[in-house]
Amino acid sequence: MPGHLRFENVGMCFRMYREKVNTLKEAVLGRFRHLKHVDEFWAMRDVSFEVKPGESVGLIGHNGSGKSTLLKIAAGILTATEGAVHVEGRISPMIELAAGFDPDLSGRDNVFLNGVLMGHTRREMEAKFDHIVDFAELREFIDVPVKNYSSGMYARLGFAIAADVEPEILMIDEVLAVGDERFQQKCQERIRAIKEAGCTIFFVSHSLNTVAELCERVLVMDHGKLVFDGPPQPAIDRYRELQGLSRPPPVRGPS
Amino acid sequence: MNIARPVLQVYDFRELILLLVGRDLKVRYKRSILGMFWTLLNPLLQMAVYTLVFSTIMKVGVPGFPVFLMAGLLPWTLVSVATIGASVSLINNQGLIRKVAVPQAVYPLAVVASKLVDMVLSLAPLVVLAALLGRPPGLPWVFLPVALLIATVFSAGLALLFSTLTVFFRDVRHLIDILFQVWFYLTPVLYPVSYLEKLPYPWMKSLLMLNPVVYVVQCFQAPIYEGRFPEARMVLLASLSAAGSLVLGFLVFLRGEKRHIHYF
Question: Where along chain B do its domains lie?
Answer without folding.
Answer: 4-262
